Amino acid sequence: MSFLERMLADPVRRSRLKRWFHVGLVVVVIAEIALPLVFGGGAAHFSFENFPAWGSIYGFVSCVAIIVVSKLIGKAWLMRREDHDDS
Amino acid sequence: MTLGWIHPGLVLILGAWVLPLLRGRIKRAAMLLLPAAALVLCLASTPGTHGVVRVLGQELVLGRVDATSLVFACVFSLMACIGMVFALRVEDDSRHITALTYAGSALGVTFAGDLLTLYVFWEVMAIASTLLVWQSREPSAVAAGFRYLLVHVVGGLALLAGIVLHWSRTGSLAFEDMGAFSGGAAWSLILVAFLLNAAVPPLGAWLPDAYAEATVTGAVFMTAFTTKSAVYVLIRGFAGTELLVWLGAAMAIYGVVYAVLENDARRLLAYHIISQVGYMVCGVGIGTELAINGTTAHAFAHILYKALLFMGAGAVLQTTGLRKLSEMGGLYRTMPKTLGLYMVGAFAISAVPLFSGFVSKSMVVSAAGETHRTAVFLMLTLASAGTFLHTGLKLPYYMFFGREAHRPPDRRGREPPANMLAAMALAALACILLGVFPGLLYPHLPNPVDYAPYTLQHVTSTLGLLGFTALGFFLLLEHLDPEPTISLDTDWFYRRGAAAFVKRIQRPLARLESGTVGEIYEFVIRRPVLGAATLLRRFDSVVVDSALVGAGRSTRSLSRLLKTAASGHAQHYGLLMAAGLLALVALAMLAR
Q1: How large is the ipTM?
Q2: Which of B467, B483, B495 sits opposite A85 (nearest CB)?
Q3: Domain span at residue B532?
Q4: Total domains in the fold of chain B
């Protein structure tokens, strides 16, 4: 798959890829806000699901929360040296 | 056994023993035909009760065939097919026999209509899967296998105790919904055994411990059967148990948290099995028609994509010898096909639209929404983001992209053999087919399905969730670099805890042994035994010996007497005969 190699090795193409990723995110947010307004909201179970761009916001918050909280718990308590069990 | 129904599990378990007798292509064909035959038998099974045998006055049902057992049996058989394709080049019959026995016993559990049959297949499954760990033959695998066996023996004992209690109380061995006995000792013991096999924390640390140590091919089988057969029996016995809702939701997040800290690729994936089984356990707890359908559908989808992910990580392990993310990187150059197939599995587990997880996981999350469980809904959605974060982003990033650690040429990686790629392609195809055509699976779920996964809201919010999880990942990338550490889990209790415990009690135990126990032994066993021995010896020397000596002496004097008579001279014998005749005549005259 030399295509992949070309995309990742070349810094110009890499930054272009990054730009497309950001454009994609913006499109998703707009779709999430606009489509329910155009076609009417779906069958949401909770009122917070109708908050504009709910999925995007919750996704970002979840991701950050998982990384930060897990690392904190890990550093404070769970993570040990690799030879921990053999000592 | 009723004619017309052949147990697919027994076909696998017994058929496996034919393999050592075969060679070359015929053996390879048999390896594929056995699970294929099991799959065909499952598909051809008609609902009803088959294979009823009477043992000790009890009716044992080997074949309870209905919608629920059939859908699980079909995916188990399908998985056995894919697993055997993956293991086709392995030149070790014992591995094939073990794997097929393992798959067959999972089918046995699935079709079991009574608790005793369930127990027997349950234990066979535990032993076969332990062997799959041991067959890797590394010292670390042997140790992990012993820990795995220890945990599962405890679980099996709990199950047996529960079954015996339940039997003595109700007089029935039938395996039905246990809701009526909720809170009782039998109910609790059976539930604990099921939860242990479903790897529900704190009973689940065996899973990442063992799955990361098993053979490359063995681990692929292991991902499918133990936890999912546990989910199946939970559906059978414990649907609607409120405790399971919370255990499941907590489990979904627990797996995600540990996956952040994990550095071993297969352990990371193993923690995501725990997370995904969390959705299923939660669905069983919710217990509505939608939730049970969701649990079943998710188990079906999960078996296929998880096997695919383990096959990907296994291919990397086999061709590079690397298991730690911190040592990998840059493999996309040498293993692009593996990367592509792995990503299908990663998209499926992350519930990306058009992949299988999207049509199955969302049913469980929707069931939580339908029953107005806000916290559970939020927890499961958060775990969804975490799943994509690790399996879809972190693992492929550090494995295939990322910084390439300096490695010798034999560790740069290459595509695995064709049969391994074919097995991955089969699983990937199934992931995509299920995602694009959920109608292939939905009609076979336990309850009628009235659920449409592809709604505008669902698709857009899922894409938003996944897209912004990816954004968060790239923003926090530097904090995610895998660290060469291991994480404490509840297996600490039997890894370190047990050792520390033994160390601590060693001295008092020794004192107790030499002191109290020694004294008791002296008085209760040693002295009475010595006394009895002395008595016996005296009896032997006095009674038995003198009897023998006496008998010998009398025999000797008698024979001396006879010797005098037996002189060898004819005149002496004639004299004796004449004397005898005279005596006879005298006797006859006297008697008259």
Answers
A1: 0.90
A2: B495
A3: 494-583
A4: 2
